[in-house]
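Worked example

This section walks through a single chain of length 235. The input is the sequence exactly as stored; nothing has been trimmed or padded.
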Amino acid sequence: MIDFHYWPTPNGWKVSIMLEETGLPYTLKPVNIGAGDQFKPDFMAISPNARMPAIVDHDTPDGSLPIFESGAILIHLAEKSGRFMPTTAKGRKECLEWLFWQVGNLGPMAGQLSHFVNYAKSVQEGDHLYAHKRYAGDYNRCLGVLERRLQARSFILDDYSIADIISWPWVLIAKPLGQSLEEFPNVSRWRELIKQRPAVQRGVDLGKDMRRTGQHTEQSRNILFGQTARSLGSP
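Given that input, the structure is written out below as tokens.
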């Protein structure tokens, strides 16, 4: 059994989709990031970066195994299930390349853009306008990289894999981020192809009722964005 520490966000969807795709049994453990659940000692023992998602796999040769960071979780679940990750040296190499491309490029750029779209009080003035343009431009650039990769292929690798699962949630929300996919027909086709998968739909719907309880206030904004090393108990 896997304990799945989760809140419904694009980062959380990566793992919820993977769990639904593999059919591995799991127990949902909500982590209300707006209420500060991520800073509770029990959760930080699993995720020292105080970010979700995280899992604890209770069925491994080494006993209960906590894992944080979505890329590491997806690799673990792929190897555990024997699915959605190539086994050839070349295939594994390409899978890891695109996995790390997402965690180092597409995800951070989309996440920063989301902050200035959804949380900055004004993007029409000064630094906010610069920051919005900066991350919108780099998100657009990342979509261009993905567009080229998807030329004449259905998926990022030869077959559907964790490379698709980890990138797709941040493309699903392109429109709310202010980015049309009209200039990226390959990305648009790929987005819709994956969206039709029943396991993907279940993964995105997981915990959707929790979103209604996650409306942000000044207090929750401070919890989300006002943290420093001291918040993690550092001296």
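What to look for: The chain has a mean pLDDT of 89.
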